[in-house]
Amino acid sequence: MQKLLISLVTILFAIVCMFLVIQNMPGDPVETLAAEIAQTQNLEMDLAYARAKSMLNYDPDIPVLQRLANYLAGVLRGNLGESLSYHKPVTSLMLGALPWTLLVLTISLFLSFAMGVIVGLFIAWKRKRWLNALLNVWQSIFGSIPNYIVAYLLVFLFAVNLGWLPSRGPYSAEVTPGFNGAFIGDVLQHAILPVLSYFLTTVGGWTVSMRANAIGVLSEDYVTYATARGLPQKRILLQYVGRNSILPMITSLAISFGFMFGGSPLIENLFVYPGVGYYLNVAISRRDYPLMQGMYFMMIVVVVLCGLLAEWLYTVLNPRLRER
Protein backbone atom coordinates (compact mmCIF):
# COMPACT_ATOMS: atom_id res chain seq x y z
CA MET A 1 0.00 0.00 0.00
CA GLN A 2 2.84 2.36 0.90
CA LYS A 3 4.55 1.69 -2.44
CA LEU A 4 1.28 2.34 -4.27
CA LEU A 5 0.86 5.71 -2.54
CA ILE A 6 4.47 6.63 -3.34
CA SER A 7 3.83 5.71 -6.98
CA LEU A 8 0.70 7.89 -7.13
CA VAL A 9 2.60 10.84 -5.64
CA THR A 10 5.39 10.26 -8.14
CA ILE A 11 2.92 10.26 -11.04
CA LEU A 12 1.28 13.46 -9.78
CA PHE A 13 4.62 15.24 -9.35
CA ALA A 14 5.80 14.12 -12.80
CA ILE A 15 2.54 15.24 -14.44
CA VAL A 16 2.77 18.71 -12.86
CA CYS A 17 6.41 19.09 -13.99
CA MET A 18 5.55 17.83 -17.49
CA PHE A 19 2.60 20.20 -17.80
CA LEU A 20 4.57 23.26 -16.71
CA VAL A 21 7.45 22.46 -19.06
CA ILE A 22 5.14 21.95 -22.05
CA GLN A 23 3.13 25.09 -21.34
CA ASN A 24 6.33 27.14 -21.25
CA MET A 25 7.74 25.77 -24.49
CA PRO A 26 8.58 28.37 -27.12
CA GLY A 27 5.99 28.72 -29.87
CA ASP A 28 2.25 29.33 -29.68
CA PRO A 29 -0.03 26.98 -31.66
CA VAL A 30 -2.74 29.66 -31.86
CA GLU A 31 -0.36 32.23 -33.33
CA THR A 32 0.97 29.65 -35.78
CA LEU A 33 -2.51 28.74 -37.01
CA ALA A 34 -3.61 32.39 -36.97
CA ALA A 35 -0.72 33.36 -39.21
CA GLU A 36 -1.64 30.54 -41.59
CA ILE A 37 -5.30 31.60 -41.64
CA ALA A 38 -4.43 35.26 -42.15
CA GLN A 39 -2.19 34.37 -45.07
CA THR A 40 -4.44 31.85 -46.79
CA GLN A 41 -7.80 33.58 -46.19
CA ASN A 42 -6.53 37.17 -46.38
CA LEU A 43 -7.94 38.12 -42.95
CA GLU A 44 -6.84 40.64 -40.36
CA MET A 45 -4.55 39.12 -37.73
CA ASP A 46 -6.94 39.83 -34.83
CA LEU A 47 -9.81 38.10 -36.60
CA ALA A 48 -7.57 35.21 -37.65
CA TYR A 49 -6.32 34.88 -34.06
CA ALA A 50 -9.87 34.66 -32.70
CA ARG A 51 -10.80 32.11 -35.36
CA ALA A 52 -7.70 30.04 -34.53
CA LYS A 53 -8.61 29.99 -30.81
CA SER A 54 -12.08 28.79 -31.70
CA MET A 55 -10.79 26.12 -34.08
CA LEU A 56 -8.20 24.80 -31.64
CA ASN A 57 -10.41 25.14 -28.54
CA TYR A 58 -7.33 26.44 -26.73
CA ASP A 59 -6.91 29.84 -25.05
CA PRO A 60 -3.33 30.85 -24.16
CA ASP A 61 -4.65 33.88 -22.24
CA ILE A 62 -5.89 31.66 -19.39
CA PRO A 63 -3.32 31.64 -16.51
CA VAL A 64 -1.07 28.58 -16.42
CA LEU A 65 -2.12 27.56 -12.89
CA GLN A 66 -5.77 27.61 -13.91
CA ARG A 67 -4.95 25.53 -16.96
CA LEU A 68 -3.04 23.10 -14.70
CA ALA A 69 -6.02 22.81 -12.34
CA ASN A 70 -8.34 22.20 -15.29
CA TYR A 71 -5.96 19.58 -16.68
CA LEU A 72 -5.64 17.70 -13.37
CA ALA A 73 -9.41 17.76 -12.95
CA GLY A 74 -9.72 16.35 -16.47
CA VAL A 75 -7.20 13.60 -15.69
CA LEU A 76 -9.24 12.54 -12.65
CA ARG A 77 -12.33 12.35 -14.88
CA GLY A 78 -10.43 10.46 -17.58
CA ASN A 79 -10.66 13.40 -19.96
CA LEU A 80 -7.26 14.41 -21.36
CA GLY A 81 -8.63 16.96 -23.79
CA GLU A 82 -8.87 17.05 -27.56
CA SER A 83 -5.98 16.98 -29.99
CA LEU A 84 -5.45 20.34 -31.69
CA SER A 85 -4.25 18.78 -34.90
CA TYR A 86 -6.34 15.59 -35.18
CA HIS A 87 -9.53 17.06 -33.62
CA LYS A 88 -10.09 13.80 -31.75
CA PRO A 89 -10.08 12.97 -28.03
CA VAL A 90 -6.52 12.45 -26.83
CA THR A 91 -7.61 9.32 -24.96
CA SER A 92 -8.76 7.62 -28.17
CA LEU A 93 -5.49 8.50 -29.92
CA MET A 94 -3.53 7.12 -26.94
CA LEU A 95 -5.48 3.87 -26.89
CA GLY A 96 -5.01 3.51 -30.65
CA ALA A 97 -1.24 4.11 -30.48
CA LEU A 98 -0.42 2.10 -27.35
CA PRO A 99 -0.85 -1.43 -28.83
CA TRP A 100 1.62 -0.72 -31.66
CA THR A 101 4.30 0.56 -29.28
CA LEU A 102 3.73 -2.28 -26.83
CA LEU A 103 3.92 -4.83 -29.65
CA VAL A 104 7.36 -3.73 -30.82
CA LEU A 105 8.84 -2.94 -27.41
CA THR A 106 7.57 -6.08 -25.70
CA ILE A 107 8.83 -8.42 -28.39
CA SER A 108 12.22 -6.73 -28.70
CA LEU A 109 12.75 -6.43 -24.94
CA PHE A 110 11.70 -10.03 -24.27
CA LEU A 111 13.95 -11.38 -27.03
CA SER A 112 16.99 -9.29 -26.07
CA PHE A 113 16.59 -10.02 -22.34
CA ALA A 114 16.10 -13.78 -22.85
CA MET A 115 18.99 -14.01 -25.30
CA GLY A 116 21.24 -11.91 -23.06
CA VAL A 117 20.50 -14.06 -20.00
CA ILE A 118 21.13 -17.35 -21.82
CA VAL A 119 24.29 -16.23 -23.63
CA GLY A 120 25.70 -14.37 -20.60
CA LEU A 121 25.18 -17.40 -18.37
CA PHE A 122 26.77 -19.67 -20.97
CA ILE A 123 29.84 -17.43 -21.35
CA ALA A 124 30.31 -17.18 -17.57
CA TRP A 125 29.96 -20.94 -17.17
CA LYS A 126 32.32 -21.90 -20.01
CA ARG A 127 34.85 -19.11 -19.30
CA LYS A 128 36.21 -19.18 -22.85
CA ARG A 129 38.45 -16.25 -23.64
CA TRP A 130 37.35 -15.99 -27.29
CA LEU A 131 33.70 -15.78 -26.25
CA ASN A 132 34.49 -12.88 -23.93
CA ALA A 133 36.40 -11.14 -26.72
CA LEU A 134 33.54 -11.66 -29.16
CA LEU A 135 31.03 -10.26 -26.65
CA ASN A 136 33.21 -7.21 -25.98
CA VAL A 137 33.51 -6.48 -29.71
CA TRP A 138 29.75 -6.82 -30.21
CA GLN A 139 28.97 -4.54 -27.28
CA SER A 140 31.58 -1.98 -28.39
CA ILE A 141 29.97 -1.75 -31.83
CA PHE A 142 26.23 -2.01 -31.19
CA GLY A 143 26.31 -0.56 -27.68
CA SER A 144 27.79 2.70 -28.94
CA ILE A 145 25.65 3.17 -32.06
CA PRO A 146 22.21 4.79 -31.51
CA ASN A 147 19.32 2.50 -32.38
CA TYR A 148 18.00 4.85 -35.08
CA ILE A 149 21.34 4.60 -36.93
CA VAL A 150 21.08 0.82 -36.80
CA ALA A 151 17.49 1.18 -38.03
CA TYR A 152 18.67 3.26 -41.02
CA LEU A 153 21.23 0.59 -41.89
CA LEU A 154 18.64 -2.19 -41.62
CA VAL A 155 16.21 -0.31 -43.88
CA PHE A 156 18.98 0.34 -46.40
CA LEU A 157 19.99 -3.34 -46.43
CA PHE A 158 16.78 -5.35 -46.04
CA ALA A 159 14.15 -2.97 -47.45
CA VAL A 160 15.90 -0.86 -50.11
CA ASN A 161 18.60 -3.17 -51.48
CA LEU A 162 17.28 -6.68 -50.87
CA GLY A 163 13.56 -5.83 -50.79
CA TRP A 164 12.87 -8.61 -48.29
CA LEU A 165 11.00 -6.59 -45.67
CA PRO A 166 8.69 -3.54 -45.63
CA SER A 167 10.21 -0.30 -44.42
CA ARG A 168 7.16 1.70 -43.29
CA GLY A 169 3.74 1.39 -41.76
CA PRO A 170 2.24 -1.19 -39.37
CA TYR A 171 0.65 -3.31 -42.13
CA SER A 172 -0.01 -3.37 -45.87
CA ALA A 173 -3.00 -1.69 -47.49
CA GLU A 174 -3.91 -4.96 -49.21
CA VAL A 175 -4.79 -6.86 -46.02
CA THR A 176 -8.03 -6.48 -44.05
CA PRO A 177 -7.46 -5.52 -40.40
CA GLY A 178 -8.89 -8.12 -38.03
CA PHE A 179 -8.14 -11.33 -36.23
CA ASN A 180 -7.07 -13.31 -39.28
CA GLY A 181 -3.87 -15.01 -40.33
CA ALA A 182 -3.10 -12.71 -43.25
CA PHE A 183 -3.34 -9.58 -41.14
CA ILE A 184 -1.38 -10.99 -38.18
CA GLY A 185 1.36 -12.27 -40.47
CA ASP A 186 1.58 -8.92 -42.25
CA VAL A 187 1.76 -7.02 -38.94
CA LEU A 188 4.55 -9.26 -37.69
CA GLN A 189 6.43 -8.83 -40.97
CA HIS A 190 6.23 -5.05 -40.66
CA ALA A 191 7.44 -5.25 -37.04
CA ILE A 192 10.61 -7.21 -37.85
CA LEU A 193 12.88 -4.26 -38.66
CA PRO A 194 11.78 -2.05 -35.69
CA VAL A 195 12.18 -5.04 -33.34
CA LEU A 196 15.57 -5.86 -34.82
CA SER A 197 16.71 -2.25 -34.32
CA TYR A 198 15.99 -2.44 -30.59
CA PHE A 199 17.25 -6.01 -30.26
CA LEU A 200 20.67 -5.48 -31.81
CA THR A 201 21.43 -2.43 -29.65
CA THR A 202 20.26 -3.90 -26.32
CA VAL A 203 21.13 -7.60 -26.34
CA GLY A 204 24.84 -6.93 -25.74
CA GLY A 205 24.14 -4.97 -22.55
CA TRP A 206 21.99 -7.76 -21.11
CA THR A 207 24.66 -10.33 -21.98
CA VAL A 208 27.43 -8.34 -20.30
CA SER A 209 25.33 -7.80 -17.15
CA MET A 210 24.37 -11.46 -16.92
CA ARG A 211 27.95 -12.59 -17.45
CA ALA A 212 29.22 -10.29 -14.68
CA ASN A 213 26.49 -11.39 -12.25
CA ALA A 214 27.04 -15.08 -13.00
CA ILE A 215 30.81 -14.83 -12.53
CA GLY A 216 30.21 -13.23 -9.12
CA VAL A 217 27.74 -15.95 -8.10
CA LEU A 218 30.09 -18.73 -9.26
CA SER A 219 32.63 -17.60 -6.67
CA GLU A 220 30.11 -17.84 -3.80
CA ASP A 221 30.61 -20.50 -1.12
CA TYR A 222 27.20 -22.11 -1.63
CA VAL A 223 28.07 -22.86 -5.25
CA THR A 224 31.36 -24.42 -4.17
CA TYR A 225 29.49 -26.42 -1.54
CA ALA A 226 26.90 -27.57 -4.07
CA THR A 227 29.68 -28.72 -6.38
CA ALA A 228 31.40 -30.56 -3.52
CA ARG A 229 28.12 -32.33 -2.72
CA GLY A 230 28.14 -33.71 -6.22
CA LEU A 231 24.93 -32.04 -7.40
CA PRO A 232 24.29 -32.21 -11.17
CA GLN A 233 25.94 -29.46 -13.16
CA LYS A 234 22.64 -28.54 -14.82
CA ARG A 235 20.98 -28.02 -11.43
CA ILE A 236 23.85 -25.85 -10.15
CA LEU A 237 23.80 -23.79 -13.34
CA LEU A 238 20.06 -23.14 -13.39
CA GLN A 239 18.97 -23.14 -9.72
CA TYR A 240 22.06 -21.76 -8.01
CA VAL A 241 23.86 -19.59 -10.56
CA GLY A 242 21.14 -18.61 -13.02
CA ARG A 243 18.41 -17.77 -10.51
CA ASN A 244 20.66 -15.65 -8.27
CA SER A 245 22.33 -13.93 -11.22
CA ILE A 246 19.09 -12.81 -12.81
CA LEU A 247 17.68 -11.12 -9.68
CA PRO A 248 19.67 -7.84 -9.98
CA MET A 249 18.56 -7.56 -13.62
CA ILE A 250 14.83 -7.52 -12.89
CA THR A 251 14.83 -3.87 -11.82
CA SER A 252 16.96 -2.96 -14.84
CA LEU A 253 14.43 -4.71 -17.07
CA ALA A 254 11.63 -2.39 -15.96
CA ILE A 255 13.84 0.70 -16.21
CA SER A 256 14.94 -0.34 -19.69
CA PHE A 257 11.34 -0.70 -20.81
CA GLY A 258 10.67 2.84 -19.63
CA PHE A 259 13.72 4.18 -21.47
CA MET A 260 12.75 2.34 -24.64
CA PHE A 261 9.20 3.67 -24.33
CA GLY A 262 10.55 7.21 -24.06
CA GLY A 263 13.02 6.68 -26.87
CA SER A 264 10.50 5.27 -29.32
CA PRO A 265 9.82 8.52 -31.32
CA LEU A 266 12.93 8.22 -33.49
CA ILE A 267 12.38 4.58 -34.41
CA GLU A 268 8.63 4.93 -34.91
CA ASN A 269 9.06 8.01 -37.09
CA LEU A 270 11.66 6.31 -39.22
CA PHE A 271 9.32 3.36 -39.86
CA VAL A 272 6.15 5.54 -39.89
CA TYR A 273 4.88 3.27 -37.14
CA PRO A 274 1.72 4.78 -35.53
CA GLY A 275 2.76 4.23 -31.92
CA VAL A 276 3.10 6.57 -28.96
CA GLY A 277 6.45 7.92 -30.15
CA TYR A 278 5.10 8.71 -33.62
CA TYR A 279 2.19 10.74 -32.26
CA LEU A 280 4.45 12.44 -29.73
CA ASN A 281 6.74 13.60 -32.52
CA VAL A 282 3.75 14.90 -34.50
CA ALA A 283 2.47 16.69 -31.39
CA ILE A 284 5.83 18.37 -30.76
CA SER A 285 6.24 19.51 -34.35
CA ARG A 286 2.70 20.97 -34.44
CA ARG A 287 2.74 22.31 -30.85
CA ASP A 288 -0.29 20.15 -30.12
CA TYR A 289 -0.19 20.61 -26.34
CA PRO A 290 -3.08 18.29 -25.35
CA LEU A 291 -1.72 15.43 -27.46
CA MET A 292 1.82 16.04 -26.19
CA GLN A 293 0.61 16.01 -22.59
CA GLY A 294 -1.37 12.84 -23.20
CA MET A 295 1.57 10.93 -24.67
CA TYR A 296 3.94 12.07 -21.91
CA PHE A 297 1.26 11.16 -19.36
CA MET A 298 1.16 7.64 -20.76
CA MET A 299 4.96 7.35 -20.62
CA ILE A 300 5.01 8.49 -16.99
CA VAL A 301 2.35 5.99 -15.97
CA VAL A 302 4.05 3.13 -17.85
CA VAL A 303 7.46 3.82 -16.26
CA VAL A 304 6.01 4.00 -12.73
CA LEU A 305 3.95 0.84 -13.23
CA CYS A 306 7.02 -0.95 -14.55
CA GLY A 307 8.86 0.03 -11.36
CA LEU A 308 6.06 -1.43 -9.25
CA LEU A 309 6.05 -4.59 -11.35
CA ALA A 310 9.82 -4.93 -10.95
CA GLU A 311 9.56 -4.72 -7.16
CA TRP A 312 6.81 -7.34 -7.13
CA LEU A 313 8.80 -9.68 -9.37
CA TYR A 314 11.92 -9.15 -7.25
CA THR A 315 9.96 -10.14 -4.17
CA VAL A 316 8.52 -13.22 -5.87
CA LEU A 317 11.91 -14.40 -7.10
CA ASN A 318 13.74 -13.66 -3.82
CA PRO A 319 12.07 -15.49 -0.88
CA ARG A 320 14.23 -13.64 1.66
CA LEU A 321 12.41 -10.37 0.87
CA ARG A 322 9.00 -12.00 1.47
CA GLU A 323 10.03 -12.91 5.02
CA ARG A 324 10.77 -9.29 5.95
Task: Describe the fold and architecture.
Residues 98-310 form the ABC transmembrane type-1 domain. With 324 residues, the chain is mainly α. The protein has 2 domains: 1-79, no CATH class; 91-288, MetI-like (MetI-like fold), CATH 1.10.3720. The protein has 14 helices and no strands. The chain has helices at residues 2-23, 29-41, 45-56, 64-77, 90-126, 129-142, 147-161, 181-218, 221-228, 233-262, 264-270, 276-286, 289-317, 319-322. The radius of gyration is 24 Å and the shape is globular.
How many separate structural domains?
2
- Give the quaternary arrangement of the chains: single chain
| First-to-last CA distance | 15 Å
Structural class: mainly alpha
Mean of residue pLDDT? 84
Order of helices and strands: HHHHHHHHHHHHHH
Low-confidence stretches: none
- Portion in beta strands: under 5%
The biggest beta sheet is recorded as: none
Query: What is the CATH superfamily classification of the largest domain?
Result: MetI-like
CATH class of the largest domain: Mainly Alpha
Helix content: over 70%
CATH architecture of the largest domain: Orthogonal Bundle
CATH T-level topology of the largest domain:
MetI-like fold
SS field, number of helical segments: 14
Tally of strands = 0
The 3D shape can be described as globular
Query: What gyration radius follows from the Cα positions, in whole Å?
Result: 24 Å
Pfam families: BPD_transp_1
Transmembrane segments: 100-125, 145-167, 187-208, 245-267, 295-317
Keywords: Membrane, Transmembrane, Transmembrane helix, Transport
Membrane topology: Multi-pass membrane protein
